[in-house]
Amino acid sequence: MLVGPDQSPSPCFRTETPSVLDPMSRASTNSSFFYLANKPGGGKAMGVKAARSERALAATLRRDKQVLSRAWKLPGWLNTEKDLSLKDHAEFDAQLAQLLDRGVPLTEALEVAASVVGSENEGRIERLRALVAQGTSFADACKQVGSFDTVTIAVYRAAEKTGDLAGACEQLANSARRRLEVAGKAATLMIYPAIVLTIALIAGAFMLTIVIPMIGNSLLKSGLDLPWFTQMLLTAGMFMRENILVIGGVVLIGVVCAFLWRSDMMKFFVRVTRFAPLIRDVVMEQELTRFFSIMGSMTRSGIPLGDAIRVSSQVIGHPKLRKDLSRLQQRLVEGGLFRSLVEKVETLPLSTRKLLIAADAAGDLETAFDALARDHAQSVDKKTARLMAVLEPLLIVILFAIVGTMILAIMLPMLNLSSAIQ
0.70 cut: is pTM over it? Predict the structure, then answer.
């Protein structure tokens, strides 16, 4: 149920919303612990297990008839339990929606749903099923086992109140599939240039360390004076050959650092793409697709419009758009009209604003959010195709600049030699 201009949130949401939909709250995640435990028949046991806390680890070991003695929390990058991927979320929600819609009890549906996620997450779904069987609400159980974000938990909680958990799961599955499609386009944009540039760098390094020194030294032995450009590359190639172990070590350290700080590097890369001339339009369309997909899922589950905007805007990385949406949500809570306020969000495309205004006047914002998610997903396809059409010749130029430079360094002395012979 949406909150219109003359309508206040339902009381059933008023008491739960602050704690559930707080955008700063996060679903609890499991950490890995190295533990020592006492066996029932004497002796010690040790190993690595994932748990929310040391207390939860002790409870898990008690089920295995072991008593926790000591536990050490491992760093996050050594976590042995992976989070549910977006694909797992889509399969999980789709399976639940199908079974619950046919009247299968939730505990039995969860038992089946455990088989559609990755093997590394079957234990997580089994723990979720055990908590539900003990009487814990589905939303609270998801929060306890971790790997379910704030938006998903809020949708589950609202669906439990309305009695339409199957419909909520179907909405979340559709939203996850749409986000997977968008993520696939983003991956294509990143992988294709990375492959071409990697090939260019490998070919350039091979020519610089093998081909140019071999030909350059042969020409020097023949008494030919090399051009300064060839001499410079020959010196660089010989230096790399003589210090190959040092350079290899530096590269290895760089790869390890990139792996350890990959999340920070990715955040920096995403921040750069928001302002890059060729990519920023695609990034904006991707963010709008995610935003409207989540808005569609939340509003159809009965979450008030203001709370849905507050939570959904957290997926927006564009600083100005995120600020405008936060201002829209604040003024909406203060009693403003959605159709009047959304018209002032100039960071949204004009056609998007006009559609939202018309949908609000007709009282059908849920359908509008779904339609906008589809439209922006299609726009991602079109703009990605255009960007690829620009990137392909640009990558060819970069490839020629790297490899062509090496070829030119080889050809120059040979042309000089040919001229001298003539």
Answer: no
